[in-house]
Amino acid sequence: MDHMSPRLRAFLSEPIGEKDVVWVDGISHELAINLVTRGFNKAYTLLGQFLLMHKNEAEFQKWLICSCGATESEARESSDCLKEWCSCFL
Fold first, then answer.
1. Calpha distance 8→87 (Å, rounded)
2. 0.90 exceeded by the pTM?
3. Tally of domains within the chain
4. What PANTHER family would the database entry show (predicted)?
């Protein structure tokens, strides 16, 4: 876990619970607003989208960029975060 950002480390330290989507590493305030507008207000709803895409990082990143206005960096960081969370808790 030494290579992880403090934000990612905090996200992975416990189950998702009722965390807002902005807790996901890589999700900026602006992207969070776009996600909430589309019904993804909680981290678990974004995780659900990731799981519906069969944890396919490239597909998830493309969806975040094209549908939600994420930057490539935001999309990569958030998919990495969700992938790591799945590795820890699923």
1. 13
2. yes
3. 1
4. BARRIER TO AUTOINTEGRATION FACTOR 2, BARRIER-TO-AUTOINTEGRATION FACTOR-LIKE PROTEIN
Q: Which domain holds residue 84?
A: 19-89
Tell me: pLDDT of 2 over 60.
no
Q: How many residues belong to the chain? A: 90
Q: Is residue 81, in this structure, part of any structural domain at all?
A: yes
- Three-state DSSP class for residue 42: strand
Instruction: Give pLDDT tens digits for 37-88.
Output: 999 999 999 999 999 999 999 999 999 999 999 999 999 999 999 999 999 9
Find tokens 């996901």 and name the residue: 24
* Residue 2 belongs to a domain: no
Integer-rounded Cα Rg, in Å, for the chain is: 12
